Amino acid sequence: MSESIPQEFWQGIEQFNSGQFYACHDTLEALWIEASEPEKSFYQGILQIAVALYHLGNRNWRGAVILLGEGSNRLRRYPSTYSGIDVDELLSQSAALLTTLQQTGADKIIADGLSENQALLLPKIVLTND
């Protein structure tokens, strides 16, 4: 892990947690393009989850399910906490949302959207002290 975490990373995390998923994607993608491993895959995992939540907001069930899975799979390679992020908590919340989406199904999400489906708890990124 790099000694210094770029300020843009924290901006992306704030955007994620405030529901600005498209902006989060743009912020983290700029970092991802320039990064080397292991940070490159870490940024990509978070931005894939952000894009999944963006898709969900647009009633794109399939895009949400695919990217939640891909982002989670990428982040599973990292320790419980990494770069000041509680990775296990993000994975747990993402898995719960993925399960709910799979059980609810595309038709209900597309018909009802997010506002009327209170069962959908969107993940938040929890910061750690490491």
TrEMBL record:
Pfam families: DUF309
Record-linked InterPro entries: DUF309 (IPR005500), TTHA0068_sf (IPR023203)
Top-rank taxon: Bacteria
The name this protein goes by in its record: DUF309 domain-containing protein
Organism placement in taxonomy: Bacteria, Bacillati, Cyanobacteriota, Cyanophyceae, Nostocales
